[in-house]
Every structure is written in C-alpha cells, then in structure tokens.
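#data-curation
PF: Archiving a pair of folding outputs for the training set. Convention for this channel: one message per protein, sequence first, structure tokens after, nothing in between. First:
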Amino acid sequence: MTGPAEAFYEPLGGGRFAATPATAGPWAPDLQHAGPVAGLIGRTFERHDPRPGTRIARVTLELLGPVPVAELEVTARVVRPGKRITLLEAEMTHEGRPVVRATAWRILAAPEQVPAVAHTPVPPPRPASASAFDDWRGVHLDGYLAAMEWRVVEGAFGRPGPGATWARARVPLVAGEDDTPLVRALVLSDSASGVGSQLDLAKWLIINTDLTVALHRDPVGEWVHMAASLSASPQGSAVCEATLADGDGELGRVLQTLLVDER
C-alpha cells in the first residue's frame, strides 16, 4: 500500500475539481469511492447560500452511475427556501453527464435547552494501532482505503459479519482546506456496506444505489466511529444501516439501498 495523495480533490475554480488517486474505491483504481463524493457534495451544500444559526441535518445522494477518478463539476440550488427549513439540491457531472444527484435539508439549530437524547451506548475506546487489510484479497488498496486511517473494533474488512471501526481521513477533502465536521462524517459514511456487510464480498456483488446520512449533531474531533450491519433477502435486495458516533456518543445514522447479484 502506497502513501495517499495530498488531498482527495484539487480545486480548479468555478465548482470544478480534479479527483486525485486517493478517491479511488476498492474495486477499481479509476472509479471513486462514494465517501469523498459525499464529502464534496456536503461541502457544496454548506457553502451554498449559508444562513447563520442553521445546519445541514440530512444529505441524500442518488448514485446515477460509477464516478470516475477525473475532473468533476458540482452545482447547487435552493429548491425550497425558508428561515427555519431549506431544501437544497446538488448535481455532480463529468464531462456534462450527471453522475450524482443529491438533496439536503438545512434546518434551524435546536435551542440549547433541548435535552440530549440518544439510544446507543458510547462506543468502545479507539484501538492503539491502525488496522490492515491483509485478509481482503483482490481489492485496490492504494486509493480511499489508504487515504483513511482505520481502527477496527469489531469484525474485519472482507469478512462477512457486522462490524465497527473508528476512522479518520489522512488527507483533507480539498487541497488547502480544513474539513468541516459534516465533511468528516460524510467522507466515512459510504463505508457502511464494507464495514458491516454480512454477505461474502468475494462471492456477491453489492452495489449501493443511494446514500442517506442524517445527523442530529455534528461530530467532535477528527475521529468518527461507525457500527454497521446489512440485511438481505432472496429475490429482494439489501439494506445497510450504520450508527455514527464520536467520543461523546451517538450523533447520527447512515442508510444504503443495495443491489445484490452473483459475481
């Protein structure tokens, strides 16, 4: 495994970005992992017509097809304006062809006196040493997997079963910028089906058609904890669910709808 690039994306101006090799997913060096894609769209939502006292609470991506490791353009618009609730829409294109469409709800931040309510325990401590991918054969290790630092606490990549891991990006989303808390959560979010797959990934092709991330608060610190599991049915499809947390406890959920087919 080689060292990661300096960032996931290089800014080109005018909403255009050049994807670096760090964005490549585990299945091919020329196709992006959707984690950086989600982070870039989240960054666009945060910067589009920002309103003080509001936050991005939910982001949903519709993945229209593979996203190449290449030059991309991201645009956003307001669909439903409002002082307390705003619906945003974004589109990512490659050479004029849409590859991702997304929506986000920007909502007014809750008052400070609202009681904190969570339903999962504080995650276990982060292991002292980084996790390796020795048992995950036939995957591309020198892209996204190398650009993230992993501290697995349950299960293992490439093995069937629920899983849990701490993770953080080794590089910023966009060169020359500091990642926001929303971006840190989104960059990890699409790893749910890899962390928590209960199907043998060497036998079954699993492709998510979408990604939804709903956060009731923003993560604190650079490390994010993900606990994920997958459900599947014969003659049906699959759903992967994950809980996101930090050292203070639960902060949100991830949901993916997945196609399952024989390799």
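PF: Second:
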Amino acid sequence: MRNKTFLAICAISFILSVSDAIAAPALAVLGRDYEFPNKISGLPAKLSDFKDLEIKFFNTSDGVRLSYWEAGKGKPLIFVPAWSANGAEYVNVLFLLSKQYHVYVLDPRNQGLSQNIDSGMRISRLSMDLKEFTDHIGVKSADYCGWSMGASVLWSYIDLFGINGVRKVIFVDEPPSILTRPGWTEQERLNAAAMADSPQQVLNALTSGAPHPLVERFNAMDSPYYENSKSFARLFIKSDMKYMSLIMYDHASNDWRDVISKKIKVPTAIFTGEYSSYNLPSQRWMASVIPNARLYVYTKEEQGDHFLMFKNPFKFTQDLREFLER
C-alpha cells in the first residue's frame, strides 16, 4: 500500500511539474479511481467511467498556476465557480453537458487544484485570470456561466473587457451587492440582496456555522447527486481557508448594479430558487433590467437553492441546453 501511495504521489508531482499546457486524464492527475456513493442512472458510477474528463494547468501573467477541468467537444461553455468551490463539484454537470458542448471549469486561484497565493485577491484579478484562460485555450467566442462569486467575476469581466466574445451568459444566484450602502431604501437593499454591513460579517456567517439559509442548504445532503459531487470534491480537494478567505473582503465590497443594468447586452439566463428567498427579489430585479433576460426559479421540490446546479443536475443541464440552443 505504501508503494502504491508513493507511486501515485510521484505521478501527480510529475504532472504538476511539466509544461503549462499539460493535459492528463483526471484519473491520472488525481492518482486513483473513485466510486460515487450513490449509483444513479445516466451518471458515472465511478470516476473512470468519465473517460474524457481531463485536468489541465496554465500559468497566469503574474505567475500563478491555475487548474481547469475539461470535457467534451462542440461549442465552448465556460463555468466560473463560487467562492471556495472547484471543478470537482461540477463532475455531474460536466458529464451531462460534455455530450453536446466543450465544457470547461476554471479553478480560481486558492481554490480547487489551483495554486495558493496571497496576492491578486481581487475580483478584478480573477476576471483577468479568466481572460488569460480564454486566451490560453484559444477561445474567441463562448458561453459563460458564473455561479455565486463566479457571477461577480463575470460582471467584472464584462465591465473590464466588454461583451466581445461573450455569446450568451448565465448567472446562478448571486447578489448584485452583498453589503448594504448608507442611505439605501429598503427596496434598493432588496434589489441588491444586501445582507451585511461588513465583509467580516459575511465571512463569519460562512465559516462560523451560525444559522443562515445558505449555510443550512449547503449542509443539507438531501440530494444523491449533490452527495456524490460533494464527497468526490472533499476527498480530492484540500482547501485552505487561510488563503480562500483573502478574496472575501474585496468580493463582498463590490456593487455590480451599474454593470448589470447597463452593460449586459447578450442573451442572459438567471437561475435561482425558492430556498434562496433572501436573494430572490434581487434576481427578479436583474431579470427586469437586463434586456430579454430569462429567469428560472426552481421550487423547493426542485431543489431550488444556492446549489441547484449540483442538487438537480438533470433539470439544470436540460434548462441550460434549452436556453443555449434558443
């Protein structure tokens, strides 16, 4: 057993040490197979069933090594994860969508298999990482889906680089402004889904275990799909809160309402749910100010919470395909 473990570590070290353009099957990068706890028809029973899933790496202009997960062929579809999230959590979504699209999930710095570093911890730098990633893979036009903080990265991307190369865009359950601004009316607060007065309050809510609907739904293992993807990610991804927390101060401080209301001129889908009642008014506001935006509100029975992509991947990927092919 020790020899097998040593060989697996050596294999991973070799893969991570070679060229930036390295491509390897996920099985080789992770060093072992994985059997999902729930057997679900239409989804892989083990990691080796997902034969074309690859994990790759590239270096940003400021020298940070980022990882990304890739599968499928066809039109490019790029996912930008939430704070603390990673490509492993998208395993079911990747599997389902790779039958029709060339799907990518970029691990942000300090998340997933990407490098831990204490610099560049701003949403604007993450949007630059996304730009450099699209340049790295040679994509001139793509559909983009940002979940939670990933939506903020896309708003920053559009603010800085415009909508050239953005074919369609999807936002999943992200408040336009996490912090309340002085002098706001209650309606303005609802439109922004502002929930705190300081970034530290947000970080405390996410890490202290204090009661909050988002934290409660994160911990609710009430979906076999979610249980599979979370258990897979927890085994292979070793997150370091010391590094992940660094982005929260900048992330929580941004107000994206002007970008949302004035700069998004491409077909847009917005996904949210009844469990996200604290956020639902803001998602309705977004749909009202983005021209011809499509709003998807999942019911509680449809696992309509902040993690709806992973708790109900068949419905989400079906709705996403329908939107992308309209």
